[in-house]
Design brief:
Length: 448
């Protein structure tokens, strides 16, 4: 560890380090997380077109990305232990830059497997960034207000999610004509293949630019004034290195990781699969690729609400309970809503100049509001009482992000074999488990 290492519980009062500086830098990282992560919402329907994918195959784009969190969480945790938080974050940025460069051969060859490799590498880089930054934010102040600090970070994360699909549409889809599903289907095979190659090549310049920016940020991070943190040894815990096996004795952590598994799964379905439902409803490619922004707008509203009411009016566990209940209600509304009527967006979002969308898709976007408080609430509830096991516990929670790799393809399977609208039923069991965790799971201190 660096000689700038300070105790996690003392970080907020350190005489040598201003909290504002590390918080500002971490906030910038959360924006990067959001931008890179929610590009997937625009990328999935785009790759479905250029690679001729089914809904199931298209959702593997999300699977490759989120699978990295499970496979690489523990290796990245060990890297952080060896290098310290600051250098670990720099390494993470460099890895994401490498993943962005892999998009270049993937685009030129329209090789779906190479796209999946690129997604896995990008996800691996974000794994080390997430493993370092989330417990850092939790430890920057009182535990009862941790959800507020994470919500502030989330505002930047989801704000980037609003921007990313729009930037993708401007940089990749602008100036492209004759690329709708109907227009492509009407072309002769050779002309269609040429048009798809033209579309794929549009990815190259944006991802080269992204790689350069990330590499520069990685160098800057190596010199950033961020102190490393150490996990506090609580009363009754022996000093020394915390073993990975020790984290499984904390039910609130293990169940919290499962809650994150289900939360990330439904979040990805709401954010990334919304474009597929848009295509089912007959919306154009440009509109479908931007639909993730609608979900992110509602998530930003949810985060703002969380900052306003937690813990002043409600506790973070109450917020989590409300999120789960709203998730169930909105999911039922997605399944039963109209794919033709646009009355809901016409009376709300269209007032701000946004394109109208069918009611069922509007409720998918509203799942963003329901999901907003899940991540900020689950993290502090899961890490409470871990002491020296906090960093290992954080790695276990990061592994829970695997829900984004598993649940979306399940949705894609049911969308292919049945109806993409009714397939949202896969979210209901996930919200029920999150509700259980909010009501009881986070309170468990020992296994029976």
């Amino acid at each position: 560890m660096s000689n700038k290492t300070v105790a996690a519980t003392d970080l907020s009062s350190s005489a040598n380090t201003s909290v504002l500086v590390p918080m500002s830098i971490i906030a910038g990282l959360f924006f990067i997380f959001g931008f890179v992560t929610w590009l997937n919402g625009a990328l999935i329907p785009f790759l479905q077109t250029i690679c001729d994918l089914t809904a199931f195959q298209a959702m593997l784009v999300a699977s490759a990305f989120y699978a990295a969190y499970t496979v690489m969480a523990m290796p990245m945790a060990y890297i952080i232990e060896r290098t310290g938080y600051k250098n670990g974050m720099a390494i993470g940025l460099f890895i994401v830059a490498v993943g962005a460069l892999i998009f270049i051969p993937a685009a030129y060859g329209r090789h779906f497997i190479v796209f999946l490799l690129a997604q896995f590498v990008v996800g691996s880089g974000l794994t080390i960034l997430q493993t370092a930054s989330n417990p850092y934010v939790v430890k920057l102040g009182p535990p009862e207000s941790a959800a507020v600090r994470i919500s502030i970070m989330g505002l930047l994360n989801k704000g980037a999610g609003v921007v990313a699909p729009i930037v993708f549409s401007v940089l990749v889809l602008s100036g492209i004509t004759g690329a709708s599903e109907a227009e492509l289907a009407a072309l002769p095979e050779a002309a269609r293949d040429t048009k798809l190659h033209e579309l794929a090549a549009q990815l190259v310049s944006p991802y080269v630019g992204m790689a350069v920016v990330l590499a520069v940020l990685g160098v800057a991070m190596m010199f950033a004034p961020i102190p490393d943190i150490e996990d506090e040894v609580l009363e009754g815990q022996e000093s020394g290195e915390a073993r990975l096996s020790g984290v499984f004795k904390f039910p609130n952590l293990v169940l919290g990781a499962l809650a994150l598994f289900f939360y990330v799964g439904v979040e990805v379905i709401a954010g990334d699969a919304i474009g597929l439902l848009g295509k089912q409803a007959g919306l154009g490619s440009s509109v479908s690729s931007m639909l993730t922004s609608y979900t992110m707008i509602f998530m930003v509203i949810g985060y703002l609400a969380g900052v306003a009411v937690i813990p002043r009016f409600i506790t973070q566990q109450t917020a989590l309970m409300g999120s789960a209940i709203l998730g169930i209600i909105f999911t039922v509304c997605v399944m039963t809503g109209s794919l033709q009527s646009t009355v809901m967006s016409a009376t709300t979002l269209s007032l701000f100049g946004m394109p109208e969308i069918p009611n069922a898709i509007y409720f998918v976007a509203m799942l963003g509001f329901a999901n907003a408080m899940c991540w900020p609430a689950i993290w502090p509830l899961s890490l409470q009482g871990l002491g020296k096991y906090t960093s290992k516990g954080a790695a276990l929670l990061i592994m829970g992000i695997a829900g984004g790799a598993i649940l979306p393809p399940i949705y894609g399977h049911f969308a292919d074999t049945g109806d993409g609208q009714l397939a949202y039923a896969v979210s209901i069991p996930a919200y029920l488990f999150i509700l259980y965790y909010a009501l009881k799971g986070h309170k468990l201190t020992r296994w029976r």
